[in-house]
Amino acid sequence: MIKIGILTVSDRASQGIYEDISGKAIKEILDRYLISSWEALYEVIPDDREVIEKHLIAMAEAGCCLIVTTGGTGPAPRDVTPEATIGVCDKLLPGFGELMRSVSLRSVPTAILSRQTAGIRGKTLIVNLPGKPKSIGECLSAVFPAIPYCIDLIGGSFLECNPEEVQVFRPQ
After folding, report:
1. What pLDDT is attached to residue 80?
2. Is the Cβ–Cβ distance between 17 and 80 less than 8 Å?
3. Is the pLDDT of residue 149 over 90?
4. Residue-level pLDDT at 172
5. Spatial CA neighbour of 128 closest among 47, 72, 62, 45
6. Backbone phi, then psi, for 140, in 5-degree steps?
7. What does each C-alpha distance from 47 to 7, 43, 69, 95, 134 come to in angstroms?
8. Of all residues in the chain, what percent are helix, strand and coil, respectively (each to 5)?
């Protein structure tokens, strides 16, 4: 069974002040995109760099080929998801963040404040998404076509995708 980590980073959602709709939005999108059988390792945690790093490492060690985070990518003092991601990755993939910001800028001028990034830890691709479900959809649809091939290149699980939902790119 393919494992994918979904990590919501939010002080308030982790305290139960409000429901985590962002992590659920990611799962719904992945359910549409993936034909492969997969299971989500899903957590809601506070905006704390050490806690984020611990969960990213645990999900990678549990065999997740992909970890998608949501939240904590803005400029506020408690927004530390990119720092945690950078802290646990062997290699960074800045093109993911660049593309997500450019797509988001079509909708909102404050997208330049977003600090999403992506990187590789062993055989795991980690991608930071923004916290709002609409932005999650825009950003994930922009970068997902490259995700399965990236996971192939690092020796992760083979993700079979629904061509009616997403057109992934794998060179011949």
Report:
1. 98
2. no
3. yes
4. 84
5. 72
6. -65, -35
7. 11, 13, 12, 24, 21
8. 45, 20, 35
Q: Which domains does the chain have, with CATH numbers?
A: 2-153 (3.40.980.10)
- Give me the sign of the Cα torsion angle 155, 145, 121, 37: negative
Q: How far apart are CA 38 and CA 104, in angstroms?
A: 28
pLDDT of 155 > 90? The answer is yes
Residue with tokens 């997208």: 111
- Across-strand partners of 45? 9
How long, in residues, is the chain? 172
Please tell me whether residue 120 adopts helix, strand or coil conformation. strand
Cα angle for residues 165, 109, 80 (degrees, 5° grid): 80
Helix, strand, or coil (residue 123): coil
Using CA atoms, how far residue 163 sits from 33, 93, 160, in Å, is: 8, 25, 9
Residue 119, CB-side half-sphere exposure with 13 Å CA sphere = 19
Residue 65 has a pLDDT of: 98
* CA nearest neighbour of 43 among 33, 53, 35: 53
